[in-house]
Design the sequence.
Protein backbone atom coordinates (compact mmCIF):
# COMPACT_ATOMS: atom_id res chain seq x y z
CA UNK A 1 0.00 0.00 0.00
CA UNK A 2 1.45 3.38 -0.99
CA UNK A 3 1.71 5.98 1.77
CA UNK A 4 -0.56 8.95 1.62
CA UNK A 5 1.31 12.14 0.85
CA UNK A 6 -0.11 15.27 2.43
CA UNK A 7 0.77 18.44 0.56
CA UNK A 8 0.31 21.81 2.19
CA UNK A 9 1.13 25.16 0.69
CA UNK A 10 3.10 27.59 2.81
CA UNK A 11 0.26 30.06 2.51
CA UNK A 12 -2.02 27.61 4.30
CA UNK A 13 0.32 27.58 7.30
CA UNK A 14 1.08 31.30 7.60
CA UNK A 15 -1.52 34.01 8.25
CA UNK A 16 -1.97 36.24 5.23
CA UNK A 17 -1.11 39.33 7.26
CA UNK A 18 2.36 37.95 7.94
CA UNK A 19 3.37 38.60 4.34
CA UNK A 20 2.66 42.29 4.43
CA UNK A 21 3.79 45.16 6.64
CA UNK A 22 3.72 44.23 10.29
CA UNK A 23 4.31 45.95 13.59
CA UNK A 24 4.20 49.60 14.63
CA UNK A 25 4.49 52.37 12.08
CA UNK A 26 8.06 53.20 11.05
CA UNK A 27 9.71 56.32 12.50
CA UNK A 28 12.21 58.05 10.22
CA UNK A 29 15.57 58.63 11.89
CA UNK A 30 16.16 61.72 9.74
CA UNK A 31 12.77 63.12 8.63
CA UNK A 32 14.50 65.71 6.44
CA UNK A 33 16.76 63.12 4.81
CA UNK A 34 19.62 60.94 6.00
CA UNK A 35 23.19 62.22 5.62
CA UNK A 36 24.74 60.97 2.42
CA UNK A 37 21.39 59.86 0.98
CA UNK A 38 21.58 59.22 -2.77
CA UNK A 39 17.84 59.51 -3.32
CA UNK A 40 14.45 59.75 -1.63
CA UNK A 41 13.20 56.21 -2.06
CA UNK A 42 12.36 53.73 0.67
CA UNK A 43 15.92 52.35 0.54
CA UNK A 44 17.25 55.82 1.34
CA UNK A 45 15.19 56.32 4.50
CA UNK A 46 16.52 54.53 7.60
CA UNK A 47 13.88 54.07 10.26
CA UNK A 48 12.91 52.27 13.43
CA UNK A 49 9.77 50.46 14.58
CA UNK A 50 9.26 50.73 18.33
CA UNK A 51 7.60 47.87 20.23
CA UNK A 52 6.91 49.26 23.73
CA UNK A 53 7.00 46.82 26.62
CA UNK A 54 3.61 46.33 28.29
CA UNK A 55 3.08 49.00 30.94
CA UNK A 56 2.41 46.47 33.69
CA UNK A 57 5.75 44.67 33.16
CA UNK A 58 8.01 47.35 31.64
CA UNK A 59 11.51 47.34 33.11
CA UNK A 60 12.74 50.58 31.52
CA UNK A 61 15.25 48.72 29.32
CA UNK A 62 15.29 48.84 25.53
CA UNK A 63 17.21 47.05 22.77
CA UNK A 64 17.87 48.33 19.25
CA UNK A 65 17.66 45.24 17.00
CA UNK A 66 19.73 44.98 13.79
CA UNK A 67 18.39 42.18 11.55
CA UNK A 68 20.85 40.25 9.41
CA UNK A 69 21.00 39.83 5.66
CA UNK A 70 24.62 40.18 4.58
CA UNK A 71 24.34 44.00 4.32
CA UNK A 72 22.31 43.36 1.17
CA UNK A 73 18.89 42.53 2.66
CA UNK A 74 17.13 42.59 6.03
CA UNK A 75 15.55 39.56 7.73
CA UNK A 76 12.92 41.73 9.37
CA UNK A 77 10.62 38.94 10.52
CA UNK A 78 12.57 36.23 12.39
CA UNK A 79 15.51 38.52 13.26
CA UNK A 80 13.48 41.65 13.87
CA UNK A 81 9.76 41.74 14.66
CA UNK A 82 9.66 38.33 16.34
CA UNK A 83 12.63 39.24 18.53
CA UNK A 84 11.07 42.56 19.53
CA UNK A 85 7.89 40.74 20.55
CA UNK A 86 9.94 38.30 22.63
CA UNK A 87 11.70 41.17 24.38
CA UNK A 88 8.25 42.53 25.27
CA UNK A 89 7.52 39.30 27.18
CA UNK A 90 10.37 40.10 29.60
CA UNK A 91 9.48 43.77 29.97
CA UNK A 92 11.97 45.15 27.45
CA UNK A 93 11.11 47.60 24.66
CA UNK A 94 12.23 46.30 21.26
CA UNK A 95 13.33 48.76 18.56
CA UNK A 96 13.74 47.21 15.09
CA UNK A 97 16.19 49.12 12.89
CA UNK A 98 15.98 49.42 9.13
CA UNK A 99 19.47 50.46 8.08
CA UNK A 100 20.81 51.32 4.64
CA UNK A 101 22.24 48.50 2.52
CA UNK A 102 24.72 47.74 -0.23
CA UNK A 103 25.43 47.94 -3.00
CA UNK A 104 23.50 51.22 -2.92
CA UNK A 105 25.23 52.24 0.33
CA UNK A 106 28.59 51.33 1.79
CA UNK A 107 30.25 52.05 5.13
CA UNK A 108 29.72 54.28 7.08
CA UNK A 109 26.01 54.56 6.19
CA UNK A 110 24.82 51.47 8.17
CA UNK A 111 26.89 52.48 11.20
CA UNK A 112 25.57 56.04 10.99
CA UNK A 113 22.02 54.65 11.03
CA UNK A 114 22.70 52.42 14.05
CA UNK A 115 24.36 55.26 15.95
CA UNK A 116 21.40 57.50 15.18
CA UNK A 117 18.96 54.84 16.40
CA UNK A 118 20.63 54.60 19.83
CA UNK A 119 20.77 58.40 20.12
CA UNK A 120 17.10 58.61 19.07
CA UNK A 121 16.00 56.14 21.75
CA UNK A 122 18.00 58.00 24.40
CA UNK A 123 16.56 61.40 23.56
CA UNK A 124 13.04 59.91 23.81
CA UNK A 125 13.75 57.83 26.91
CA UNK A 126 11.69 59.93 29.34
CA UNK A 127 8.78 60.11 26.89
CA UNK A 128 8.84 56.33 26.38
CA UNK A 129 9.38 55.41 30.03
CA UNK A 130 12.94 54.16 29.47
CA UNK A 131 16.17 54.42 31.42
CA UNK A 132 18.72 56.14 29.12
CA UNK A 133 21.47 54.14 30.83
CA UNK A 134 19.93 50.78 29.94
CA UNK A 135 19.78 50.97 26.15
CA UNK A 136 21.33 47.97 24.42
CA UNK A 137 21.95 46.82 20.87
CA UNK A 138 21.40 43.40 19.32
CA UNK A 139 22.43 42.07 15.94
CA UNK A 140 22.07 38.86 13.96
CA UNK A 141 24.67 37.72 11.40
CA UNK A 142 25.69 40.83 9.41
CA UNK A 143 23.45 42.75 11.81
CA UNK A 144 25.74 41.32 14.49
CA UNK A 145 28.66 42.89 12.69
CA UNK A 146 26.83 46.20 12.71
CA UNK A 147 26.03 45.82 16.43
CA UNK A 148 29.66 44.96 17.23
CA UNK A 149 30.82 47.89 15.09
CA UNK A 150 28.54 50.19 17.06
CA UNK A 151 29.94 48.66 20.26
CA UNK A 152 33.53 49.44 19.25
CA UNK A 153 33.04 52.64 17.20
CA UNK A 154 30.98 55.02 19.34
CA UNK A 155 31.17 58.57 20.62
CA UNK A 156 29.76 60.60 23.49
CA UNK A 157 27.76 62.91 21.24
CA UNK A 158 28.23 66.60 20.43
CA UNK A 159 27.21 68.75 23.41
CA UNK A 160 26.82 71.88 21.26
CA UNK A 161 24.94 70.23 18.38
CA UNK A 162 21.87 72.05 17.08
CA UNK A 163 20.01 68.73 16.85
CA UNK A 164 19.31 67.45 20.40
CA UNK A 165 19.56 63.88 19.13
CA UNK A 166 23.18 64.46 18.12
CA UNK A 167 24.00 65.53 21.67
CA UNK A 168 23.36 62.00 22.93
CA UNK A 169 25.95 59.26 23.29
CA UNK A 170 25.62 56.42 20.79
CA UNK A 171 27.46 53.90 23.01
CA UNK A 172 25.17 50.96 23.81
CA UNK A 173 25.03 50.06 27.48
CA UNK A 174 25.15 46.37 26.56
CA UNK A 175 25.48 44.32 23.40
CA UNK A 176 23.84 41.06 22.24
CA UNK A 177 25.37 39.26 19.26
CA UNK A 178 23.65 36.29 17.62
CA UNK A 179 25.84 34.27 15.20
CA UNK A 180 27.60 37.55 14.29
CA UNK A 181 29.96 38.39 11.48
CA UNK A 182 32.93 39.87 13.36
CA UNK A 183 36.14 39.66 11.36
CA UNK A 184 36.32 41.02 7.81
CA UNK A 185 40.01 40.33 7.30
CA UNK A 186 40.15 36.65 8.31
CA UNK A 187 39.57 33.48 6.34
CA UNK A 188 36.46 32.86 8.43
CA UNK A 189 34.97 36.24 7.50
CA UNK A 190 31.83 36.56 5.40
CA UNK A 191 32.73 37.67 1.88
CA UNK A 192 29.23 38.69 0.91
CA UNK A 193 29.00 41.07 3.86
CA UNK A 194 32.42 42.52 3.02
CA UNK A 195 31.43 43.12 -0.60
CA UNK A 196 28.10 44.74 0.26
CA UNK A 197 29.57 46.87 3.03
CA UNK A 198 32.87 47.94 1.45
CA UNK A 199 32.64 47.22 -2.28
CA UNK A 200 34.72 44.97 -4.52
CA UNK A 201 38.19 46.27 -3.59
CA UNK A 202 38.09 47.38 0.05
CA UNK A 203 40.87 49.41 1.60
CA UNK A 204 43.03 47.09 3.78
CA UNK A 205 43.04 49.67 6.58
CA UNK A 206 39.24 49.73 6.54
CA UNK A 207 39.14 45.93 6.63
CA UNK A 208 41.34 46.06 9.71
CA UNK A 209 39.31 48.83 11.34
CA UNK A 210 36.04 46.97 10.80
CA UNK A 211 37.38 43.60 11.94
CA UNK A 212 35.91 44.28 15.31
CA UNK A 213 37.89 41.75 17.31
CA UNK A 214 40.80 44.17 16.80
CA UNK A 215 38.82 47.17 18.08
CA UNK A 216 37.73 45.99 21.53
CA UNK A 217 38.79 48.19 24.46
CA UNK A 218 37.90 48.24 28.17
CA UNK A 219 35.10 50.67 27.20
CA UNK A 220 33.39 48.13 24.92
CA UNK A 221 29.93 47.33 26.39
CA UNK A 222 29.31 44.07 28.26
CA UNK A 223 28.35 41.46 25.68
CA UNK A 224 26.29 38.28 25.31
CA UNK A 225 27.15 36.04 22.36
CA UNK A 226 25.29 33.06 20.92
CA UNK A 227 26.48 30.87 18.01
CA UNK A 228 26.40 27.28 16.78
CA UNK A 229 29.47 25.21 16.02
CA UNK A 230 27.73 23.82 12.93
CA UNK A 231 27.11 27.23 11.35
CA UNK A 232 28.40 26.97 7.75
CA UNK A 233 27.54 30.55 6.76
CA UNK A 234 29.28 32.50 9.49
CA UNK A 235 31.80 30.24 11.28
CA UNK A 236 31.78 30.18 15.05
CA UNK A 237 35.35 31.54 15.07
CA UNK A 238 33.79 34.98 14.64
CA UNK A 239 32.21 34.78 18.10
CA UNK A 240 35.26 33.07 19.61
CA UNK A 241 37.73 35.78 18.60
CA UNK A 242 35.42 38.55 19.78
CA UNK A 243 34.83 36.83 23.12
CA UNK A 244 38.58 36.34 23.53
CA UNK A 245 39.15 40.05 22.90
CA UNK A 246 36.45 40.98 25.43
CA UNK A 247 38.01 38.80 28.12
CA UNK A 248 41.48 40.12 27.32
CA UNK A 249 40.29 43.69 27.91
CA UNK A 250 38.33 42.94 31.07
CA UNK A 251 34.88 43.39 29.52
CA UNK A 252 32.11 41.34 31.11
CA UNK A 253 30.98 38.76 28.57
CA UNK A 254 29.10 35.50 28.21
CA UNK A 255 29.37 33.10 25.26
CA UNK A 256 27.06 30.19 24.40
CA UNK A 257 28.07 27.85 21.59
CA UNK A 258 25.58 25.13 20.72
CA UNK A 259 26.88 22.06 18.92
CA UNK A 260 24.02 21.77 16.41
CA UNK A 261 22.19 24.36 14.37
CA UNK A 262 22.42 26.03 10.97
CA UNK A 263 22.88 29.71 10.25
CA UNK A 264 20.06 32.22 10.57
CA UNK A 265 17.90 30.44 13.15
CA UNK A 266 16.50 33.55 14.84
CA UNK A 267 14.69 32.45 18.00
CA UNK A 268 14.96 28.82 16.76
CA UNK A 269 11.38 27.88 17.73
CA UNK A 270 11.58 24.49 15.97
CA UNK A 271 14.60 23.22 17.92
CA UNK A 272 13.88 22.27 21.56
CA UNK A 273 17.57 22.69 22.52
CA UNK A 274 18.60 25.74 20.50
CA UNK A 275 15.34 27.43 21.45
CA UNK A 276 16.72 27.80 24.99
CA UNK A 277 19.34 30.41 24.00
CA UNK A 278 16.86 33.19 24.70
CA UNK A 279 16.43 31.93 28.27
CA UNK A 280 20.20 32.17 28.71
CA UNK A 281 19.98 35.73 27.39
CA UNK A 282 17.19 36.50 29.87
CA UNK A 283 19.37 35.14 32.70
CA UNK A 284 22.29 37.31 31.55
CA UNK A 285 20.18 40.45 31.35
CA UNK A 286 18.83 39.83 34.84
CA UNK A 287 22.19 38.85 36.33
CA UNK A 288 23.84 42.02 35.05
CA UNK A 289 21.05 44.28 36.26
CA UNK A 290 19.86 45.46 32.84
CA UNK A 291 16.24 44.71 33.79
CA UNK A 292 16.20 47.06 36.77
CA UNK A 293 17.54 50.37 38.00
CA UNK A 294 17.88 49.00 41.53
CA UNK A 295 21.13 49.74 43.33
CA UNK A 296 23.55 46.91 44.17
CA UNK A 297 26.01 46.72 47.05
CA UNK A 298 29.06 44.78 48.13
CA UNK A 299 28.44 42.06 50.73
CA UNK A 300 31.12 40.20 52.65
CA UNK A 301 30.83 37.88 55.58
CA UNK A 302 31.26 34.55 57.29
CA UNK A 303 29.10 31.44 57.49
CA UNK A 304 29.43 29.13 60.50
CA UNK A 305 27.72 25.77 60.66
CA UNK A 306 27.35 24.42 64.16
CA UNK A 307 29.86 26.99 65.33
CA UNK A 308 32.50 25.97 62.78
CA UNK A 309 33.36 27.71 59.48
CA UNK A 310 31.44 26.18 56.58
CA UNK A 311 34.23 24.36 54.76
CA UNK A 312 32.89 24.59 51.23
CA UNK A 313 29.54 25.90 50.04
CA UNK A 314 27.50 28.60 48.35
CA UNK A 315 25.46 31.59 49.48
CA UNK A 316 22.84 33.50 47.48
CA UNK A 317 20.82 36.61 48.30
CA UNK A 318 17.43 36.86 46.59
CA UNK A 319 15.68 40.27 46.55
CA UNK A 320 12.45 40.17 48.54
CA UNK A 321 9.73 42.53 47.39
CA UNK A 322 6.91 41.21 49.55
CA UNK A 323 5.79 38.49 47.16
CA UNK A 324 5.71 40.71 44.06
CA UNK A 325 6.82 37.88 41.77
CA UNK A 326 6.89 40.02 38.65
CA UNK A 327 9.19 42.60 40.22
CA UNK A 328 11.40 40.01 41.90
CA UNK A 329 11.88 38.24 38.56
CA UNK A 330 13.63 41.31 37.13
CA UNK A 331 16.06 41.74 40.03
CA UNK A 332 19.50 40.07 40.05
CA UNK A 333 20.43 37.40 42.58
CA UNK A 334 23.80 37.86 44.30
CA UNK A 335 25.89 34.71 44.61
CA UNK A 336 29.24 33.66 46.06
CA UNK A 337 31.20 30.55 46.92
CA UNK A 338 31.93 30.05 50.62
CA UNK A 339 35.39 28.76 51.48
CA UNK A 340 36.43 28.05 55.07
CA UNK A 341 33.52 30.18 56.14
CA UNK A 342 34.42 33.32 54.21
CA UNK A 343 32.66 34.88 51.22
CA UNK A 344 32.81 38.17 49.31
CA UNK A 345 30.47 39.57 46.64
CA UNK A 346 31.72 42.71 44.82
CA UNK A 347 29.34 45.61 44.26
CA UNK A 348 29.19 45.25 40.46
CA UNK A 349 27.40 41.92 40.91
CA UNK A 350 26.35 42.50 44.48
CA UNK A 351 23.09 42.16 46.35
CA UNK A 352 20.19 44.47 45.58
CA UNK A 353 19.84 47.10 48.31
CA UNK A 354 16.88 46.34 50.55
CA UNK A 355 15.39 43.19 51.99
CA UNK A 356 16.91 39.92 50.70
CA UNK A 357 16.19 36.26 51.42
CA UNK A 358 19.24 34.10 52.10
CA UNK A 359 20.01 30.65 50.75
CA UNK A 360 23.03 28.61 51.89
CA UNK A 361 24.14 25.29 50.42
CA UNK A 362 26.91 23.08 51.74
CA UNK A 363 29.03 21.14 49.29
CA UNK A 364 30.14 19.05 52.23
CA UNK A 365 33.34 17.81 53.74
CA UNK A 366 34.04 15.23 51.08
CA UNK A 367 36.62 13.20 52.98
CA UNK A 368 37.24 10.34 52.79
CA UNK A 369 34.90 9.94 49.81
CA UNK A 370 32.29 12.33 48.37
CA UNK A 371 28.66 11.30 48.14
CA UNK A 372 25.59 13.00 46.73
CA UNK A 373 24.45 13.67 50.30
CA UNK A 374 27.43 15.98 50.82
CA UNK A 375 25.66 18.68 48.83
CA UNK A 376 22.43 19.91 50.40
CA UNK A 377 20.68 23.14 51.38
CA UNK A 378 21.28 24.37 54.89
CA UNK A 379 18.97 27.34 54.42
CA UNK A 380 16.48 27.68 51.55
CA UNK A 381 14.95 30.90 50.31
CA UNK A 382 11.71 29.87 52.01
CA UNK A 383 13.32 29.29 55.41
CA UNK A 384 12.60 32.81 56.67
CA UNK A 385 16.21 33.97 56.95
CA UNK A 386 16.28 37.55 55.63
CA UNK A 387 18.79 40.39 55.77
CA UNK A 388 18.58 44.09 55.02
CA UNK A 389 21.26 45.08 52.53
CA UNK A 390 22.52 48.65 52.96
CA UNK A 391 24.14 50.74 50.21
CA UNK A 392 27.52 50.02 51.83
CA UNK A 393 29.16 48.40 54.85
CA UNK A 394 27.47 44.99 54.58
CA UNK A 395 29.23 42.31 56.65
CA UNK A 396 26.98 39.31 57.12
CA UNK A 397 27.67 36.90 59.99
CA UNK A 398 25.66 33.66 59.98
CA UNK A 399 25.80 30.83 62.53
CA UNK A 400 23.62 28.01 61.25
CA UNK A 401 22.61 25.15 63.57
CA UNK A 402 23.50 21.55 62.84
CA UNK A 403 20.51 19.47 61.77
Sequence:
Amino acid sequence: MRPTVLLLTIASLVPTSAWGEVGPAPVLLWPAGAPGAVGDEEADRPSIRVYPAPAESATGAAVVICPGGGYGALAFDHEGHQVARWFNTIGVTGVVLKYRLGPRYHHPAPLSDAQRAVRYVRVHAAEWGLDPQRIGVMGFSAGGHLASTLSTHFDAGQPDAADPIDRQSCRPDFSILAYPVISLRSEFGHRGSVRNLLGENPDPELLQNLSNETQVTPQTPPTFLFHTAEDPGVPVMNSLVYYEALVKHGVRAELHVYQNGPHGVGLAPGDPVLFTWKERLHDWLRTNGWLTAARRAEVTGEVLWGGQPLRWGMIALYPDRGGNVQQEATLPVAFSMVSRGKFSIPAWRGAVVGRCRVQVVTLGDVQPLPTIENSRPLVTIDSGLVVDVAPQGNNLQLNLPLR
Remarks:
- The two ends are 68 Å apart (CA to CA).
- The CA atoms of residues 39 and 45 lie 9 Å apart.
- The longest helix spans residues 109-123.
